[in-house]
């Protein structure tokens, strides 16, 4: 009798184990593949990975690791005359009308070249209406600002310097101010061969310095290069979800996790307190109402708060918003007919039906593409003699 009970117990234990394995396998199949199988799929060269689930017409690029930094080349660049001039200008409040605000006031090396504020604070403590984007990898951008109103870094620097609620400096008066400082005249001569400073020199030097601001390699970069232990099982699952069920890769793809396009993701707040018509303000094309540039997700966990208005400072809550489908503010046919400017949320925004565990996996993956910050030292002494 004891022997029979023993075999019954063993049989029940085996049956329970089989049922538990089947249940676990079915649960994960609903989000793609069993977690035990995901590593075997992604621990291969990226060309052999499963293709992502993309909407029709989406143009995308596969992920690509950042290269190792050539230290010798990097320091040679940082010591070049143009970059030295640009770095001094970037950290110098003399570029503002009040002599109190520098480019680094909003783009600080201590906060991943952003400012950790919902929206920027500038001259006379005036608030902007948009979040300060990080300058990391800015040399790779095709357009600048949330609405894409500038197409070169040299053109981009003009707006914050002269904006009344940012640095409030007259662009014609700035060279006059700088030409009174012998040290700056010497720096400009070393960079451009003339002591007579123009705003063009300022723009070129600032752009040259900003092109040096790049992300360090993350654990995900090392994973892409074959160091497969760099990602946990949860992060590998998050990677798979990012490319499939969570639909992130439709907009966040390529080496810098951005399609460089403009989308209305449903945060226009049309005819409400926080209304911002985005790219429409630049193009005047009704189809651009509420569209904003897709930000890079490189170092995303270091650049909170997020979105063009900085209204989200919790990444799990933000993924939950995407999970909802973001269709709460989109126009009906009747509304669009009555008001051509009534925004339509991008059809890429769809309800995702991610579980709590899947959302945690996506967040874990975002951690893996965030690198350790490089906190560049500010100039010890600014040009003043």
UniProtKB/TrEMBL annotation:
InterPro entries: Cyt_c-like_dom (IPR009056), Cyt_c-like_dom_sf (IPR036909), Cytochrome_c_Peroxidase/MauG (IPR051395), Di-haem_cyt_c_peroxidsae (IPR004852), MauG/Cytc_peroxidase (IPR026259). Keywords: Heme, Iron, Metal-binding, Oxidoreductase, Periplasm, Peroxidase, Signal. Residues 81-192, 233-370 form the Cytochrome c domain. Pfam families: CCP_MauG. Its main location: periplasm. One of its GO terms (molecular function) is peroxidase activity. The keyword DNA-binding does not apply. SUPFAM superfamilies: Cytochrome c (SSF46626). It is found in: Periplasm. The keyword Phosphoprotein does not apply. This is Cytochrome-c peroxidase.
């Amino acid at each position: 009798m004891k022997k029979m009970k023993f075999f019954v117990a063993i049989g029940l234990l085996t049956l329970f184990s089989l049922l538990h394995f089947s249940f676990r396998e079915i649960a994960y199949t609903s989000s793609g593949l069993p977690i035990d199988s995901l590593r075997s799929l992604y621990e291969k060269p990226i060309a052999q990975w499963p293709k992502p689930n993309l909407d029709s017409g989406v143009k995308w690029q596969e992920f690509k690791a950042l290269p190792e930094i050539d230290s010798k080349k990097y320091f040679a660049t940082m010591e070049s005359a143009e970059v030295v001039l640009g770095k001094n200008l970037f950290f110098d409040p003399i570029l503002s009308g009040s002599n109190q605000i520098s480019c680094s006031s909003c783009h600080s090396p201590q906060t991943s070249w952003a400012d950790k504020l919902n929206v920027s604070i500038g001259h006379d403590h005036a608030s902007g209406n948009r979040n300060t984007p990080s300058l990391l990898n800015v040399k790779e951008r095709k357009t600048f600002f949330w609405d894409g109103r500038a197409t070169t870094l040299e053109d981009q620097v003009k707006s914050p310097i002269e904006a009344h609620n940012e640095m409030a400096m007259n662009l014609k008066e700035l060279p006059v101010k700088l030409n009174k400082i012998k040290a700056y005249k010497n720096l400009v001569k070393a960079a451009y061969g003339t002591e007579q400073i123009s705003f063009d020199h300022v723009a070129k030097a600032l752009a040259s310095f900003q092109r040096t601001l790049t992300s360090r390699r993350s654990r995900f970069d090392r994973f892409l290069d074959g160091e497969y232990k760099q990602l946990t099982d949860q992060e590998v699952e998050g990677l798979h979800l990012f490319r499939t069920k969570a639909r992130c890769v439709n907009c966040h793809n390529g080496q810098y996790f951005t399609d460089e396009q403009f989308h209305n993701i449903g945060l226009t707040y049309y005819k409400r307190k926080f209304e911002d018509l985005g790219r429409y303000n630049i193009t005047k094309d009704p189809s651009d109402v509420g569209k904003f540039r897709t930000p890079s997700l490189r170092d995303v966990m270091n650049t909170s708060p997020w979105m063009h208005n900085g209204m989200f400072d919790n990444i799990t809550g933000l993924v939950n918003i995407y999970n909802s489908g973001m269709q709460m503010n989109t126009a009906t046919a009747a509304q669009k007919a009555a008001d051509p400017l009534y925004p339509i949320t991008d059809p890429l925004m769809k309800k995702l039906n991610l579980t709590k565990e899947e959302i945690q996996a996506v967040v874990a993956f975002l951690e893996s593409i965030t690198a350790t910050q490089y906190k560049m030292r500010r100039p010890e002494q600014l040009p003043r003699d």
